[in-house]
From TrEMBL:
Name of the protein this chain belongs to: DUF479 domain-containing protein
Length: 229
């Protein structure tokens, strides 16, 4: 799941460190694709500080949500459907339709959460900006990121740009897809392909509104309630 879909599961929580931890795996991946953190292998490192442990709790929650999501019938059904729609558009290109379908579904869910008023980006960014940076820096350092400055530069830009707010416009999904695919392929979509992808993905997003909440309900029913402060 993407940033805002993960935030959905902590939408009623007011602890910034917990919320930061919940989206931190994706933030780290976006800041530097070479970084590979595995804090779950050494949980004892994070038990000495309350805010540090809240970040770790959020990190574990993220992994748990992704595990349920990626193994769900919902994920399999819709990624296959989307893949079949975009496959003809991406034929004879290096871009993998399965990857695009995966990311497109996650972006669609974020977009629907916003347009249906289930969550707000203002609340999301507010809590990220309130995170204890000392604890966050220590969390990264304990995970062998020796120079944390690039991450914090990325984080500041991520918060200040409020880029996720643009997901309210369903047409923006293809632009966001292009940005993500550019991490793997140079100029992944031609202008014609962008128009073709928009023509198939926007209607699919609208049809997804009929049952999108089923996956959130299914995952939420499996998660333990938050007991922190």
């Amino acid at each position: 799941m993407n940033f805002l879909s993960h935030f959905y599961f902590d939408r009623s929580i007011t602890n910034p460190e917990r919320i930061m931890g919940m989206v931190l795996p994706d933030l780290v991946k976006n800041a530097n694709k070479e970084w590979s953190l595995r804090p779950e292998k050494n949980p004892e490192k994070f038990s000495t500080d309350k805010n540090l442990y809240r970040i770790y709790e959020g990190w574990k929650r993220h992994l748990e949500v992704d595990r349920y999501f990626h193994s769900s019938d919902f994920f399999c059904l819709h990624t296959q459907n989307i893949k079949s729609l975009i496959g003809p558009v991406l034929v004879n290109t290096e871009v993998r339709p399965s990857f695009v379908a995966h990311i497109a579904l996650e972006l669609m869910l974020d977009s629907i959460l916003l347009t249906e008023g289930i969550i707000t980006t203002e609340r999301f960014y507010y809590f990220l900006s309130r995170t204890d940076k000392r604890a966050l820096d220590k969390f990264l350092t304990l995970n062998k990121i020796t120079d944390t400055k690039p991450f914090f530069l990325f984080l500041d830009e991520f918060i200040n740009s409020a880029y996720l707010s643009s997901y309210k416009d369903s047409v923006h999904i293809v632009y966001a897809l292009g940005r993500i695919c550019m991490r793997l392929w140079v100029n992944p979509f031609t202008e014609t392909q962008k128009l073709q992808l928009t023509a198939v993905l926007v209607p699919y997003l609208e049809s997804l509104r009929n049952d999108y909440m089923t996956i959130f309900d299914q995952i939420e029913s499996k998660l333990n309630p938050y007991t922190g402060s």
